[in-house]
Amino acid sequence: MRGHGVEPTRCGAAEGGAGTHRQRQWCRAAKAAGRGYRPAMESVRAVLVDIDGVLTVSWRPLPGAVEALREIREAGLGVLLVTNTTSRTRASIAGTLAGAGFPVSAEDILTAPAATAAYLAEHCPGARCALLNSGDIAEDLDGVTVVEPGDTGSVPDVVLVGGAGPEFGYAALDRAFGHLQRGARLVAMHRNLYWRTAEGLRLDSGAFLAGLERAARVEAEVTGKPARAFFASALARLGVGADEAVMVGDDVESDVLAAQRAGLTGVLVRTGKFQEETLRAADGTPGHVIGSFADLPALLRDSAQQ
User: Fold this and answer.
1) Rounded to a whole number, what is the distance in angstroms from the first to the last CA of the chain?
2) In which band, very low, low, confident or very high, does the pLDDT at 44 lie, cut at 50, 70 and 90?
3) Of 228, 231, 272, 230, which is closest to residue 249 (Cα–Cα)?
4) CB–CB of 213/184 below 8 Å?
5) Assign residue 285 a region: left if phi > 0, alpha if psi is -120 to 50, beta otherwise?
6) How far apart are the C-alpha atoms of 50 and 42, rounded to whole Å?
7) CA 175 to chain centre
8) Is the distance from CB of 155 to CB of 179 less than 8 angstroms?
């Protein structure tokens, strides 16, 4: 791929010894298929992939996504699924995806809640947190002390905002506002404004977060995408540098441009929450825009020098 520090390699180089045995097999297979192969990128060793809207919608696989992920794995590239999903644990997500045919386990997934637990352990050790979230994510908040909504004994140290749902009613938001007024820190797992379901777009917690910030005159510390620390954590888990990784997502700002600011190559898919008007209004240009995740293997193989 061109741009953002990622250079294409030629198939001959891969066959001559650079890259893994599987990568060399990929080269030969592509040539044999007559696909006009312009080989996989020499420096790309790993692919970061958003889940919701990229691999699935409402947890149902998008066309060609399972096959594409299998092909990328078989090429010898590292894969990490990076998601702001806050309604399920890593184990639950992995079970659902594996049941749909995706070659993944819990170790292949980095969630915003898991990243948040690490962030709190480093920056707010021992903090008492008032959690506002839809879904049970306790398993991924290892070491985090969550106070019950009815606990009025003292002000929590942190108001922790996850993903939106029925729990985001007036009483809960007003209670969080009160904690912030009395000195609690505001930590958010993400700033997503909406996400795609089978029924259409649904409002997410970013809309409520903006209101809390403005009303309480505080700024949230964000731990999931688009935080640079989230991408750094993902790269560290894969053992690769930013210039060796590609980030694939359906959110031009939080997935793609945020990754590019962290030094990765960004690939935007036209599925999930993708909207043409959002792309036009974006504060930057994605490295690549493709129809869907099913098109990624071809992009990795055939990135032509323009």
Assistant:
1) 10
2) confident
3) 272
4) no
5) beta
6) 23
7) 29
8) yes
pLDDT > 70: percent of the chain: 84
Spatial separation of the C-alpha atoms in residues 160 and 284, rounded to whole Å: 30
What pLDDT does residue 275 have?
93
Buried b (16+ CB within 10 A) or exposed e, 85-106: bbbbbbebbbebbeeeebebeb
Other beta carbons within 10 angstroms of residue 38's beta carbon come to: 15
Distance separating alpha carbons of residues 1 and 269, to the nearest angstrom: 15
| Token pair in block for residue 169 | 């009613």
- Of 47 and 192, the structure prediction assigns the larger pLDDT to 47
Instruction: For residue 247, give the amino acid letter.
Output: M
Q: How far apart are CA 69 and CA 74, in angstroms?
A: 9
As given in the structure block, the two tokens for residue 306 are 């323009």
Structure pTM? 0.76
DSSP 153: S
Ranges of H-type helices in 100-185: 112-123, 170-181
| Cβ density class 225-240: b for 16+ within 10 Å, e for less | bbbebbbebbbebbeb
The two tokens of residue 173 are: 């938001």
By DSSP bridging, strand 56-57 and strand 60-61 are: antiparallel
pLDDT, one tens digit per residue, over 240-299 is 999 999 999 999 999 999 999 999 999 999 999 999 999 999 999 999 999 999 999 999
| Beta strands at 128-132 and 221-222: parallel, antiparallel or unpaired | unpaired
> 154: which 2 tokens?
């003292």
Please give the C-alpha separations between residue 243 and each of 70, 147, 260, 262, in angstroms, as whole numbers: 23, 41, 10, 9
Report yes or no: 65 and 293 within 8 Å, Cβ to Cβ: yes
